[in-house]
Amino acid sequence: MTSGVPAAPLTDEELTSLVEGLAGLPYGGEAVDQRTHALQTAWLARDAGADDELVVAAALHDIGRARTGRARPVRAEHPGLPHEVAGAEFARRRVSERAAWVIAQHVPAKRYLVATDPAYHALLSPASIASLKVQGGPMDEREAAEFAAHPLSADAVAQRRRDDAAKDPDGPRLTMPDLLAAHARCVAVRRT
User: Which residues contact 20 (CB under 8 A, 6 or more apart)?
Assistant: First the structure.
């Protein structure tokens, strides 16, 4: 594992390579590849009025899944960690602490929603239902209360809902220029 010391922000070339490196990679039995899912999630975030930091987090939320391609270094830097933790460790160093927390919590947010929203389970795809079992199933009352008490829990829940909706092969996607512009604004804020 890498240290928690912040590294230089991603360059445009690095961010482009990471996202483009997801093209063609299967996304857990869903009808979209990982690149389509990432850019569709980012589009949904922007469409919902999310700020730039959350748009970038949406695009990178599954970056820890990539086992091949140009995005593989994220997984290689954090072997053995669940994808959300590997992605969060990467984002903590290269994007921001807030983006890292939202990325880390997008799986627990699914567990939270299954436990607290009676209609949510019916919205899950078969692949997401199968992964829920591996991820620990619904949160218990204590876990749900702790999750809800975190000041960024609403951001993680919103990310989870976008994640669930971003599985349409014909759905809208954020363009790379728009993602790069959002990231550039994040970098400018990070430097101030």
Answer: 35, 70, 176
Is 26 strand, coil or helix? strand
Phi-psi region of 174 (alpha: psi -120 to 50; beta: other; left: phi over 0): beta
What's the whole-model pTM score? Answer: 0.91
Give the type of residue at 148.
Answer: A
115 CB neighbour count, 10 Å cutoff: 18
| Model pLDDT for residues 45-75, shown as the tens digit of each residue | 999 999 999 999 999 999 988 765 555 678 7
| Measured distance CA(145)–CA(186) in Å, rounded | 31
CA 140 to CA 84: how far, in whole Å? 20
Beta carbons of 135 and 49 less than 8 angstroms apart: no
Q: Give CA–CA dist 124/48, Å, rounded.
A: 20
Q: What's the N-to-C CA distance of the chain in angstroms?
A: 28
